[in-house]
Automatic annotation (TrEMBL), chain A:
Residue stretches spanning the membrane: none
Pfam families noted in UniProt: SCO1-SenC
Protein name: SCO family protein
Highest rank taxon of the organism: Bacteria
Cysteine disulfide partners in this protein: 94-98
UniProtKB/TrEMBL annotation, chain B:
Keyword Oxidoreductase: no
Pfam families linked to this entry: Cytochrom_C
InterPro entries from the UniProt entry: Cyt_c-like_dom, Cyt_c-like_dom_sf, Cytochrome_c-type_DH
Lineage of origin: Bacteria, Pseudomonadati, Bacteroidota, Cytophagia, Cytophagales
Species assigned in the record: Hymenobacter qilianensis
Name of this chain's protein: Cytochrome c
PROSITE patterns per the UniProt record, alphabetical: CYTC, PROKAR_LIPOPROTEIN
Residues of the signal peptide: 1-21
Amino acid sequence: MINLLFTRARRAGILVGSGALLLLAACQSQPDTAADRLPYLGEREVVPRADGGPADTLYATIPRFTLTNQDSITITNDTFKNKVYVADFFFATCPSICPKMQSEMLRVYEKFKDDPRVLFLSHTIDPAHDSVAVLRDYAQRLGIQNASRWHFATAPHDTIFSLARAYYVPAEKDDKVAGGFAHSGAFTLVDSKRRVRGLYDGMNPDEVARLMEDLPVLLKEEAENASQAKL
Amino acid sequence: MRWRAADLLRLGGFLAAGTLAAGCFTDRQNAGARLYAQHCAHCHGDEGQGLKRLIPPLAGADYVAENRNFLACLVRRGVNGPMVVNGITFNQVMPGHEDLTDSEITNLLNFVQSSWGNKGKPFTIREVSEKLQACAGSDGQ
């Protein structure tokens, strides 16, 4: 399942990378003027317009959420308004993949830390243990002094696990695995309209490098959309 | 697993020596490196560098140099609670490794003892099995 997701994401990446954009653009209803666009992941719905004009395509979006971050502040989708962000799922006492994942996330953070348009959101999948105080300590130990750019967030168990699905990160409680949770080390790239634009294996430095190449592509698109909206 | 320049250099050195004995030692070093990549690197880093103030380093760690008697049990049973490594207080959970044999722990520790500038005295399997008795952790293999 995890592999499947990554294979699909990687293929989409290759499509864009190899300039087979015509193919991709052909499946999209709106003509694409800019050369480089990241794909949209997930379900899409084509909605006919009442006036008989060209149909609109609606892409899957991250649902509304309310979380609490390491500074005890409530964060919602609006916290990420007009930003793009990278999300992942971890827990502080994770005996397996998390330290590696978070050190890879730290690489991305360090590269983009001077660009306020990019935010980071790490969700704990062990809210029973990872209190706000635990999350704050974890973040600070990682060198993240406050939540202005990188949120370490918690919420009731069910909220987190249904959000994980929306971000295409398989995660579940599993007493059979070390640490008690089975989850993937995926990083999910989300645009300012809450649409998923990329999925990367956070355990694989090559995949993380691809994320770092995709981020400027998405930022360019966001900037173009913003200037078009102003016209 | 990925080879780093340092590993290749080290391997190259042993191969250049060309004797049977050296070949044998290379194999164990190799096994230690493989076990490290498999069981430790995702936390302590490919170069034993650790991760900020979350995971302590193994490269150049005073803790490794000063706690020789405790290292085998630390790997077997894991460790948690505050610990100071190179002047920094860490306080996270390291899980135990029940699935490793005594000889695998020996190879692992010898890899750590001789990598990234560390210069600890190598362990024998017998010594590791003895130390593991302190935490009832020897499997005699």
